[in-house]
Structure formats: structure tokens, C-alpha cells
Amino acid sequence: HLTATPMTNQEMGAAGDLWFFTSINTQLWENIAHKPEVNVAFAEPKDGLYVSVSGRAERVDDRAKVHELWNQLVEAWFPNGPDDIKVALVRVNPHSAEYWDTASSTMVSMFAMAKAAITGEPPKMDAAEHGKIDL
């Protein structure tokens, strides 16, 4: 079954790969070994921005890359530092992404959702507010 793990994206590589820190002692680490197809979701509700990325995750145990991406936020989760043998990385190679930009008009969006609730029809969104990208 699907599971979700809150994480912070550390970098988007030149090829579009997304990088995350994790521990080798997590269920996420084990899950990726058996089923690497993942979905990564990003949200900035105050700005009305939402992104969903589908891709293939890879477990990466590369000390040089760990050191390259290391920062104070990561240190809060891994106080033994970048040389801790439990610290590892997850690289997600995206296949596709879908986005929604509802910030253009919160009132218009609220009206569309209220109308949908009354009529039973899904709210209509402008093409500029929603899109899909195959990578």
C-alpha cells in the first residue's frame, strides 16, 4: 500500500533529479529497494501552488554527495554529522509532473468549488492554472 513520508528537497540537479536525506534505518529506505516508483508532492498553500511529481527513486550511499548537500537543517535530524553511516540520500528521477496554481484568484476558486458542490459538477480550472509535463 502507499505510504507518505514528509521530507525536505535538498537540491534539484541539472537533469531534474530531486535529492532528499534519509536514514538507512527507515521503512522508506526499505520500500525504495522493493518498489522504487514514487510520488513526491509539494505545496505552498499560502501562494496557492501545488505540484505532484511521479518518478523513480534510487537509494544513494555517497559520502561526497552527502557532504555536498549537508546543511544545518539536516544536522538537526542527524546530529552525528555527515559521516554518520546511517545518513543516506534518495534521488528521485521524475517521469512526469502536474501542477496547480490557484493563487490567481482565491475568490474565483472558492466560487468554483461552491458552484461544484451545488451542481455536482467538478470545478472548471483554466488551462493556465493546471498542467501536466511529461519528462
Largest sheet: 6 strands, antiparallel
Radius of gyration: 18 Å
Strand fraction: 35-45%
Counting DSSP H or I runs of 4 or more residues, the number of helices is 4
What is the molecular shape?
A: elongated
pLDDT averaged over residues: 86
- Point out poorly predicted stretches: none
C-alpha end-to-end distance = 25 Å
Roughly what percent helix?
25-40%
| Strand segment count | 6
Summarize the structure.
This protein is an alpha+beta fold.
Task: Give an overview of the whole structure.
26% of the residues lie in helices and 36% in strands. It has helices at 27-34, 63-69, 72-77, 106-119; strands at 11-12, 18-23, 37-44, 49-60, 87-101, 130-134. Strands 1, 2, 3, 4, 5 and 6 form a 6-stranded antiparallel β-sheet that branches. Strand 3 and strand 4 form a beta hairpin. The chain is elongated and about 55 Å long. The mean pLDDT is 86.
Please specify the SSE layout and strand pairing.
Layout: E1 11-12, E2 18-23, H1 27-34, E3 37-44, E4 49-60, H2 63-69, H3 72-77, E5 87-101, H4 106-119, E6 130-134
Antiparallel strand pairs: 1-2, 2-5, 3-4, 4-5, 5-6
Throw out a few tags for this protein.
6-stranded antiparallel beta sheet, alpha+beta, 4 helices, single chain, 135 residues
